[in-house]
Every structure is written in structure tokens, then in C-alpha cells.
Design goal:
alpha+beta, 6-stranded antiparallel barrel, 5 helices, 23 strands
Length: 424
């Protein structure tokens, strides 16, 4: 009986377990069936959308126009010219300061101030470079001021004595007319008047001496400070605070600023064709700048070996960007005039790869931009003399062609359409 109950209980547990497993499988199958149905529905929607996309164009599609071309670049153009110009030759040189000076101190003493450092800009007749302790100068100023006061007091006293002597002399002269004064008394009065006049002259000379001493002390006092003699830059500093220096000791070394000289050694075959004041273009290679200048001096002191003569071309230092020692190239005229192509300076684009210009040419009734590689020969006023570079793949240059002088940075590629702005 017991065994029969145990068997029945075991069978019931097995039945419950099988029912649970069957229920889980049904639930899983139902979930998978729902997902498949949802996926099939999504696929139908996507298919419907694709078919709708393939439908004939409606009103919205009718509004769309034909595809647009590349954007137009707004530019301003100049003209290629042809001029009769003398060819120029390149001569290498370097920049040199116009003036260089070592500034000294005018008095001996202890340095109490040095107001500049190397590389600092100074203003002529304004910047105080260094100063010496002025104690002794102040004492001297007080001393000569006292001497002047004393001399002026002596002048007043001498004037009073002279007036009294003249009064006495006049009195004795009146007495002498009536024989009331002895001759000796008259002579003494005359001598006293002359002595008083001499003392006044001496006192006046003392005043002048004291005044000159005051001027001398003032001048010496000024020399207790070293002042920049011209606009320049400090390139070397010799003095420090606390030093005891002698009169004339160097304070700083200054080179001028504002203008600078490009010094080139010109061969003897070319120097005879140069004139002072002639325009010369100078290229400062380190900063890639071209600067116009004038011949300041042709120095008649040639070298025995190279047979060259120094020529100074005065140029602007571009607010200190051009510095002594920089390498330069100057274009100097040589030979007879010849036909040369020129373009406006603004047309030339310079880069590390060389120089180029954009030309505007007509194609299919529209203007397009083409790039032309050029060599810049030299400057001629507001123009550059140019020649085609051997690497040029663009069209050749010819007089009358249009070249872009403004808006070149808007051109993105050769062949880009152009829209011209009005000339200024």
C-alpha cells in the first residue's frame, strides 16, 4: 500500500514538470511568431516606401532645377602691358645700419640708473640711457648760486659808492669855482670817483663770471645723464647700476632705425651706368619682401681683386623687420632697352614654389581662370617685368590679356568661372 502511494506521488511530479516544460515552449514559440510577424510588417512598409520613391515625380520634384555648376569667383582685373625697359641684373648684398654709435657718459661717478636693455627701441633726444649720482653737481650748483648773489650785492654796493663819489666830486668842483676848495681836495675827489667806478666794473665782471659758472655747472649736470642721440635700437649694453665709471665710459651701443641701407658690390662694368637717387628694387629673401629704395651713395673705392664698388640703396626698415646683416638681392639696370612684358604688382602671387598669376580667358562665352607660372624679372614703378617660367603649363602671356589683381584668393582651381568687378 505504501509502495503504491509513493509511485503515484512520483508520477504526479513528473506530470507537473512536463506541463511546465510544455508551457514554456509554447510561450517561446508565440514570442518568435510575433517577432516574425512584426518583421514581415516592417518589410512590407519599407517595400511600400521604396515603391512610393519610384513613383513619378510630383509637384515637389517638378520644382527641382538642373544641377548647378561650380561657383563664380568675384575678381578685379588688370591688363598685361608691353614696355621698352632696360634689363636688370641681380646683385647679392646685405643690409647695414645707417648709423652706429657707442654712447658714453659725460661725467665720472657712481651709476645709479641704467634704463635700457639690449634690443630695446630708444627715441632720439628723449630716452635717458643711464644716469650718474649728481650729488657733487648739486653742491656745485648751490655754490655758484651763492657766488652770483654775492657778486650782485657787490655791484649794488659799488654803484652806491660811485654815486657818492660823483656827488662829492661835483661838490668840490663847485667850491673850486669860488676858490673855496684846495686843489688837493679836488684831486682826491676825482681819484675817489675813479676808484668807485673801477670797483663797479670789477663787481660787474664778478657777476658775469658767476653767471658763466652757473651755465657751466648746468651743462655739467646735464652730462650726468646719457641721452639717446637718435632713434635707434640698443644692440649692446656696457654699464650696470652700482659701477664707478670714469668720464667718457661707454654706456650702450645703438644702431639707427627707420631707414636702413642695402649695400651691394657692383661690378665696374655696371657702376658707370648708375646715378645717385635712381630707383632700385630690393628683395629681402628672409622675409620674402620686395622694397623700393633709392641709391644713396656710390662709393669710389673699389676692391683690387674683384673690381667691384660698394653702392648703398636706402630703404625703409618696415618698422624694424629689416635688420642689419640680412641677405638682399638688388636689381640694377644694365644694357640697352628692350621690349618687356609687364603686369600690375598686385597680379603676382608669390609662394615657396615660385611666382604665378591668374589670367581671365574666354571659353564658351564665359570667362574662366587659368594659372600661369612666371618669373619676376624686376620692378618698374607699379608694374613687374615678367617672363614665362619653363614649368608653365598655362597659356602664354600676351599684351592686352586680363590678369586678376584682386580676388585671386577666391579662385579655387583652374577653369573656375569668373565674374568681373568694376575697375576702381
Amino acid at each position: 500500500m505504501v509502495q503504491s502511494d509513493s509511485g503515484r506521488e512520483f508520477a504526479m511530479k513528473i506530470g507537473v514538470l512536463l506541463m511546465a516544460i510544455a508551457g514554456g515552449a509554447a510561450l517561446l514559440f508565440s514570442s518568435l511568431s510575433g517577432a516574425d510577424a512584426s518583421a514581415q510588417q516592417d518589410d512590407k512598409k519599407a517595400s511600400a516606401n521604396d515603391e512610393a520613391g519610384k513613383a513619378p515625380a510630383g509637384k515637389d520634384n517638378a520644382k527641382a532645377g538642373p544641377p548647378q555648376g561650380p561657383p563664380h569667383a568675384l575678381v578685379r582685373v588688370g591688363i598685361v602691358s608691353q614696355q621698352e625697359l632696360r634689363p636688370h641684373v641681380e646683385i647679392i648684398g646685405r643690409l647695414r645700419e645707417v648709423r652706429r654709435v657707442t654712447v658714453g657718459i659725460g661725467q665720472q661717478g657712481k651709476v645709479i640708473g641704467v634704463n635700457v636693455e639690449e634690443g630695446q627701441w630708444v627715441d632720439g633726444q628723449k630716452t635717458v640711457l643711464a644716469s650718474i649720482d649728481p650729488t657733487f653737481s648739486n653742491i656745485a650748483k648751490e655754490s655758484v648760486a651763492s657766488q652770483l648773489k654775492q657778486a650782485q650785492a657787490e655791484v649794488k654796493e659799488a654803484k652806491a659808492n660811485l654815486d657818492q663819489a660823483r656827488t662829492d666830486l661835483k661838490y668840490f668842483e663847485e667850491l673850486a669855482k669860488t676858490q673855496s676848495a684846495r686843489p688837493r681836495e679836488l684831486d682826491n675827489a676825482k681819484a675817489a670817483e675813479e676808484a668807485a667806478a673801477a670797483r663797479l666794473d670789477r663787481a660787474g665782471a664778478a657777476v658775469l663770471l658767476a653767471e658763466s659758472e652757473i651755465e657751466r655747472v648746468k651743462e655739467e649736470h646735464i652730462r650726468y645723464e646719457a641721452i639717446a642721440p637718435f632713434d635707434g635700437v640698443v644692440v649692446r649694453k656696457w654699464m650696470e647700476v652700482g659701477q664707478w665709471v670714469q668720464k667718457g665710459a661707454p654706456v650702450v651701443e645703438i644702431i639707427s632705425r627707420g631707414q636702413i641701407d642695402a649695400v651691394v658690390d657692383v661690378p665696374e662694368r655696371l657702376v658707370a651706368d648708375l646715378n645717385k637717387g635712381a630707383d632700385v628694387e630690393v628683395l629681402v629673401e628672409s622675409i620674402g619682401k620686395r622694397v623700393n629704395g633709392k641709391i644713396e651713395a656710390i662709393i669710389p673705392d673699389g676692391t683690387n681683386v674683384a673690381r667691384t664698388f660698394p653702392v648703398k640703396v636706402r630703404i625703409d626698415d618696415l618698422k624694424g623687420k629689416l635688420m642689419p646683416g640680412m641677405s638682399v638681392t638688388a636689381w640694377l639696370p644694365a644694357g640697352e632697352e628692350r621690349t618687356t612684358l609687364t603686369v600690375p604688382r598686385d597680379a603676382v602671387l608669390s609662394s615657396a614654389a615660385g611666382s604665378s598669376i591668374w589670367v581671365a580667358v574666354e571659353k564658351d562665352g564665359a570667362l574662366i581662370a587659368l594659372k600661369v607660372e612666371v618669373d619676376v624679372l624686376f620692378g618698374a614703378g607699379d608694374q613687374y617685368a615678367v617672363a614665362l617660367n619653363r614649368r608653365n603649363l598655362g597659356p602664354p602671356l600676351a599684351p592686352g590679356m586680363q590678369v586678376v589683381i584682386e580676388g585671386g584668393e577666391r579662385i579655387l582651381f583652374p577653369g573656375q568661372p569668373l565674374t568681373l568687378l568694376e575697375s576702381r
